[in-house]
Write a structure and sequence with these properties.
- With about 350 residues, this protein is an alpha/beta fold.
- About 40% of the residues lie in helices and about 15% in strands.
- A seven-stranded mixed sheet has the order 1-9-8-5-4-2-3, sandwiched between helices.
- Helix 6 links the parallel strand 4 and strand 5.
- Helix 1 packs antiparallel against helix 8, helix 3 crosses helix 7 and helix 9 packs parallel to helix 13.
- The longest helix has 19 residues.
- The protein is globular, with a radius of gyration of 20 Å.
- It starts with 10 loop residues before the first helix and ends with a helix.
């Protein structure tokens, strides 16, 4: 059976983790520091801190912003459930927004409606590695925290003073007041757990650094996890190249099938963290058909806010629909040629 998800762990990742174990230095230390430097170069941010979980990262980001207790924080209905829980546990009110069906993202229009309902901050989940219209979101004037757990490595062209596109690019993770890059097992870069909290600008980094300089070691990412993430970032271009090639093959196969995928920039403007397929028929029938061909399919948003909060169904109708009919097709660098060829064949013939 070709599993839906599989972390790409090669010899380099194994060697880095093994070195940590042999040196008996598995707690937060030198490799945590080395990972931070690697992320700063990769994302082009002013400063960052490597922590044990995305929830802890969000806790520090919210503390840095000094919001009033009970303030409404806007989140996507398709964001992972930890967004909702972490916002609530921090003493704020989650304001759940619906998404655009064609992209799975919250749009500037949707965000504007959320602001009219009292939303003062946006936790922007860049779902399925697809980047939103940052320019129009920034024009709204609402501060936002980026979650680049699925979109790390993607970028958009920089425009000059006249609005013309230049050859320069601006990385995901450098648009918000803060950014969170989850390092969980199914994120595009994994340490088996953890997160990096980034401050794109110097002003924000000064505030964040003041808070995190005194943090307990229990909040910091251990070196044994940092070792894995450090190598994964170094190998990102290689892995993403393979994912893009596979994505292109799968996308072409879907064009002759019954089902579709989300609209996205196919080059540097999105990260191919997964292959989402929006079904036009029963998930049960499609899953059974694929299973007979030894391919596992899983619902893409089974651990999302909308999947856990059924009471939001009427408010978030598009997100609810996608949570029931969008699946993930296996997409990872370790797929063999014969496995990817099998997936391509099945994508073109799904019921």
């Amino acid at each position: 059976m070709i599993q839906t998800y599989s972390t790409t762990i090669r010899r380099k990742e194994m060697d880095a983790v093994l070195t940590c174990m042999v040196d008996e230095k598995i707690g937060p230390g030198e490799l945590n520091t080395r990972l931070i430097q690697q992320v700063k170069e990769f994302i082009k941010c002013d400063g960052c801190v490597a922590l044990r979980s995305p929830s802890i990262a969000l806790k520090y980001a919210l503390a840095s912003l000094g919001l009033q207790a009970g303030a409404k924080i806007m989140i996507s209905a398709l964001a992972p459930l930890w967004h909702y829980k972490a916002v609530s546990e921090a003493g704020f009110e989650p304001l759940v927004l619906d998404v655009e069906e064609a992209s799975s993202l919250v749009t500037p229009e949707i965000i504007k409606k959320g602001m009219e309902e009292g939303g003062v901050l946006l936790l922007l989940h860049e779902t399925e590695g697809i980047l939103p219209d940052f320019e129009k979101i920034i024009e709204l004037g609402v501060p936002f925290i980026e979650d680049i757990s699925q979109s790390a490595g993607s970028s958009v062209p920089v425009k000059d003073a006249n609005g013309n596109v230049t050859d320069q690019r601006k990385m995901a993770g450098t648009f918000g007041v803060y950014s969170i890059m989850g390092l969980e097992e199914r994120n595009v870069i994994t340490a088996g757990g953890g997160a990096v909290l980034m401050a794109p600008g110097r002003r924000e980094w000064i505030v964040l650094k003041h808070l995190t300089d005194e943090t307990d070691e229990t909040d910091l990412l251990p070196d044994i996890n940092a070792a894995l993430a450090w190598v994964q970032i170094k190998e990102f271009a290689r892995n993403e190249k393979t994912r893009k090639e596979l994505f292109g093959l799968f996308h072409q196969a879907c064009m002759i099938g019954r089902h579709k995928t989300f609209a996205r920039e196919m080059e540097e403007g999105s990260t191919m963290c997964s292959f989402p397929l929006v079904l036009s028929s029963s998930f049960k029938d499609v899953k059974q058909y694929a299973a007979k061909k030894d391919i596992e399919l899983q619902l893409a948003f089974e651990k999302s806010v909308i999947a856990a909060k059924d009471e939001l169904s009427e408010r978030c109708i598009h997100a609810k629909s996608l949570s029931l009919c969008c699946v993930h097709v296996p997409l990872y660098p370790r797929l063999t040629h014969s496995e990817s060829a099998k997936i391509v064949k099945v994508l073109g013939s799904l019921p």
